[in-house]
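Hi, here's the filled form for the chain we discussed.

Project: internal
Contact: R.S.
Residues: 343
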Amino acid sequence: MIDWSSLVRPSLVGLEPYRPGPSVSELRREHGLDEIAKLNWNEDLFGPLPGALDAVKDELVNACMYPEQAYIAAVAHTFIREGDVVVVPQPTYGLYAQVSAGAGARVVHVPNRDFRLDLSALADTARTESAKLVWICDPNNPTGSLVEPAEWTEFLAALPDGTVAVVDEAYREYADPERRVAREPDVLAGRPLVLLRTFSKIFGLAGLRLGYAVAHPELAPYLDVVQEPFNVNRAALAAGRACLDHPERIEERRLESGEARALLARLLADAGMESLPSEANFLLVEVGGDDAALAGKLVVRGFLVRPGSEFGLDGWIRVTVGPPPLMERFAAELAAVRKGVPR
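And the returned structure, exactly as it came back:
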């Protein structure tokens, strides 16, 4: 029998794959439920933007042909060599550390401060560790906090030579346009910066797996060498173009999501639970006690949430925002679970 661990990249040995957990169909069967609300993956529960599905349908006639362009997808493997250091906030989206370690990096975690990214500490750590990359999620997952413009300016000024900032802006469209940082000028100015964006969140296209990078024109060819050609399908591209054709619909969805987020926060506060201020499509909620056990009790009531202990935040849960009727049902069920009311 071949020992595959001796043949794969050494940096992969010992790493655990990303495990999203049981499927909804498995959980429905296990608990005898007709429906389960997925409030754990931060998908846009309002559905695709108007026009996106029609664009997919129209494009399916071309399914036998390659898409017209290839798209960027491999930032970590473009920059990281075996033994490089990568700086990652804690807590944040877990795949930053995993993909960096898989590429051979040593990952250094920097704790957040008051549930917000500590950009000063991230820059200082990058300097002392001679880091190749610093990962930033803005708004941050799982806290929903937003980087302030002044913080960003100071961070870029403090970033040492030889370090690249990779900013994941997956949730940027949910944030108030007047408050979020516009980083495109920094990219065009040649700052050591790559932006990652997605159509999985506010555009409601998570199942089509469409995303892109914003990078300086001189960097783009190197990214193209690494990424797999034709890695985005034609249906996803058609849906993405349809979404961008109507920017007013994006703003409508932002406001709709913000109202539902505010409603959920009020309902939870009325039930004695506080949530952190969020600029994303989720709330981090303090529930106290065993958050994993609480999440398990919510499953049998038809709701999936993300236990905070998975992020190192014991006593918290992360809840995806959805339409108001769903939020009202969820808040009532969560309150009942915390009071020990039988199902």
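Let me know if anything looks off before we file it.
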